[in-house]
Amino acid sequence: QAKAAGRNAIRFFDPAMQIALEENAAMLAELHQAIDNGELELFYQIQIDETKGIQGAEVLLRWFHPIRGMVSPLDFIPMAEESGLIIPIGRWVLESACHQLKVWENIPNRENWQISVNVSALQFQQENFVEIVQEIILSNNINPHGLKLELTESMVLDNVDIIIEKMHQLNQLGIDFSMDDFGTGYSSLSCLKRLPLKQLKIDQSFVRDITTDPDDAAIVQTIINLSNSLKYDVIAEGVETQEQRQFLFNNGCSQYQGYLFSRPVPIAEFEELVSSMSVNFAAALD
Ligand code: C2E
Ligand code: MG
Ligand code: MG
Ligand code: MG
C-alpha cells in the first residue's frame, strides 16, 4: 500500500504504534471468546454501614486470560465499550450477579443485602435494556430489591428524558440506582435532582487525601450535604484508613467500601470474610 501511494509520499511508520495496534486487535479477538471460555469472573467487594452492618457488595469484573493472566477491567472495559462487546459481557455480569443474589436470598439475615452492578453507557442505552433486566430477574426468580445499578454522570448528559424514563421503569420493578464516581463528571444539579437515585457514591479520588487536603475535605462534606438535601444515601469508595473512616463518619457518611475492609475478592473468599466479620460482631456484643 505504501508503494501504491507513490515513491514520494510521506509515510510515518512507528513500529511501536504498529505493535500496539496488533496487540489491541489480538486482545479484542480473545475478549470475544472470553465468555464462552469461562475466563470471566466476578469479584465481590463488601459494602458496610457503620450503624447497620453489611449492606452487600459491588461486583467487579475480572478477566483471567490463559497467557496474560488477570487483566484489569481498566484495560478491557474501554475496549469492550468501543467494540460493542460490553453488551454480551454486561449481560453475563447481570446474570451472574442475579444468580448470586438467589443464593443469598436463602441465607438468614441477608434479606436486605444488595449487589451493586456497574452498567456501561452503551448497555444502558440499549432500547430493550429494561426488558433484558426484567427477563434476568424473572428467570432467576430473585427479589429485584436486591439489585442496585451503578451509573456514571457522563451517561446522563444526553437524552436525559429517555434515561430518566428508563430509570423510572427499572425503579418500578424495584431496582435501585447509585451514581458512581460522583463528583468527577459534569452532571448539573438541576439534572441530578430529577434522577430517581437511591445513592451517591463519593469518588475515591476525593477520599484519598480527605484528612490532609482541605479542598478534598470540603468537596466530600459538600457531597454529603447534597445527598442529605436530595434524600439520597451516600457511600464513600476507596476507604483505606481508619482516619478516612472516622472523618467520613464524623461528617455524616456511614457507608463505606474500600481496602480497609476488603479488596474485591472471589466469592469463596467473600463468604469467609463475611463469616469472620459475623464472629467479630458477635464477639463485640458479648
Ligand atoms: P468503579 O466502579 O469505580 O470501581 C471501584 C474501583 O476501585 C475498583 O477497581 C476497585 O477495585 C477499586 N477500589 C476499591 N476500593 C479501593 C481502595 O480502597 N483503594 C483503591 N486504590 N482502589 C479501590 P477495578 O475493580 O479495577 O474496576 C475499575 C473500574 O472498571 C470500575 O470502577 C468500573 O468502572 C469498571 N468495571 C468493573 N467491573 C465492571 C463491570 O462489570 N461492568 C462495567 N461496565 N464496568 C466495570
Ligand atoms: Mg462502581
Ligand atoms: Mg466508582
Ligand atoms: Mg472509580
From TrEMBL:
Keyword match Membrane:
yes
UniProt-listed GO biological process terms? cell wall organization; cellular response to nitric oxide
Where is this protein localized, as stated in its record?
Answer: Cell membrane
Q: Name one GO molecular function term.
A: phosphorelay sensor kinase activity
Q: Which GO terms describe its cellular component?
A: plasma membrane
Q: Where is the EAL domain?
A: 24-278
What domain of life? Answer: Bacteria
**Coiled-coil regions, chain positions:** none
Q: Which UniProt keywords apply?
A: c-di-GMP, Cell membrane, Membrane, Transmembrane, Transmembrane helix
UniProt name for this protein:
cyclic-guanylate-specific phosphodiesterase
User: Per the UniProt entry, what species is this protein from, by scientific name?
Assistant: Colwellia psychrerythraea (strain 34H / ATCC BAA-681) (Vibrio psychroerythus)
